[in-house]
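Dataset card, provenance and construction

Sequences and ligand SMILES were collected as paired inputs. For each pair, a complete structure of the chain with the small molecule in place was predicted and serialized as structure tokens. The example below shows a pair involving fe (ii) ion. Curators did not alter the output after generation; any descriptive sentences attached to a record were derived from the structure itself.
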Amino acid sequence: MATFAQAPQDLTSYEYRLFNKMAVGMDAFHEGFRQTWTELLSICNAGRLPSDITPGAYVGKFLEWCAALDRHHALEEEHVFPKLGMKMPVFRPDFSEPSIDQKGCKTRPEIYAQHREIHTGLDTLHEYLKAWAREEKIEVDLVEIKRQMDGFGEVLWRHMDEEVQMLKAENMMLYWTKEEMEGLPFKVKS
Ligand SMILES: [Fe+2]
Ligand SMILES: [Fe+2]
């Protein structure tokens, strides 16, 4: 019969990796977004493009990043969160309980609100960059791009950290059995 594990220290190494697999998998996605963000922002902070990057290449990379983050959030809301929400109230769009739910999940119930807040800035920046690409401008306005990035950078980075925290083994084992964890996304990493 399926049983819930008692405590993280009672898990075997495999079991811990099984319960932690979504945190590891999600963090790998987020790390890609963080790295590209840092690279794009550092160019804004430098105030000019490196000599080997054209304005078109910079905007092109940024457009790819925006589209990938958009797809990531759509996938989460359409496929991942509904599955998690079957057991974990914090992943339901209508969840509005205090910061710790009845099972002790130490997370803030803001995941959908964070996505919306991120997209207020992200969608505007995405449209700005698409318009730039359509007009084939010669110069790229790094001050304006930085201003827009600063508008949603804090909530984006906080969201990426908090989402991973919610998926850590310590939380997942409160809601899911080992057998159920096998059926959730991501492979167990050795
Ligand atoms: Fe995510
Ligand atoms: Fe997310």
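Derived descriptions for this record:
The chain is about 65% helix and 0% strand.
Helices lie at 13-46, 55-85, 111-135, 142-166, 169-175, 178-182.
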